[in-house]
Amino acid sequence: MSQSPFPALPLCQVTFPSNPLINAALAYSKEHTSECTVNHCLRAAAFALLLARKLPPLAAANLDVEAVVLSSILHDMGWSTTKSLLSDDKRFEVDGANIARDFVKSSTAAGVAEGWDKHRLQLLWDAIALHTTPSIAHHKEPEVFATNLGILADFLGPNVPIPGNPITVDEYKEIVRAFPRLGFSDQVVDILCGFCRDKQDTTFDNFVSDFGKIYGLDGKGAGKEEWATLCEEKNIAKGLMRGLEGCKQWDV
């Protein structure tokens, strides 16, 4: 049996499942995203496994652990450094979900994966597409919920707003030591401001546009005012009300 590529996390009592598909997904993410992104995704997977053990609703859910770990490892493929993988017109979460689904389908065809029926593929897709939308993800299947919690925990650590404060400082430190941050905060700003600059129409209806308002289109403040003005023009509520007003000419 080949050695697992994942380190032991004894304090967290977390063991990464290691099989040909998960190992191939890790290699794929390393090929197509930065080391900083890979480590973020691995921390998210570790936090998801930790919370799945500690939170009663997840512990009792007969969780599809392979789906949770795979979703976590591949959730930011929409940040790929291989630009040919990405669309020009889709949110990064949707790009990531599509890339992950295609990866599992091709792995199944190659004999690397098995058991990935329509339902499990949809779980994977939903977990990734909704990973920045907790107000929906937390009401989906337990695998989608667990994936979202793990990703959120990487941003908030022991301060993640879950009753009982289930992540201890020592557990947090063990995970971050295993998968160092490597300037993750700076990368988040750089990537999300880049979407405001390069994929503007994918940002107006979600939180990504806020990064452009705060940090500018280059992550250093350039173009903040112009971007804020454009976001105001693209405001969803205003657009909907303009549409309703325009429909009045046909109302009966």
UniProtKB/TrEMBL annotation:
Q: Looking at the Swiss-Prot or TrEMBL record, what is one Pfam family this protein matches? A: HD
* InterPro entries per the UniProt record, alphabetical: HD_domain
Start and end residues of each HD domain = 38-136
What is the protein name given in its UniProt record? HD domain-containing protein
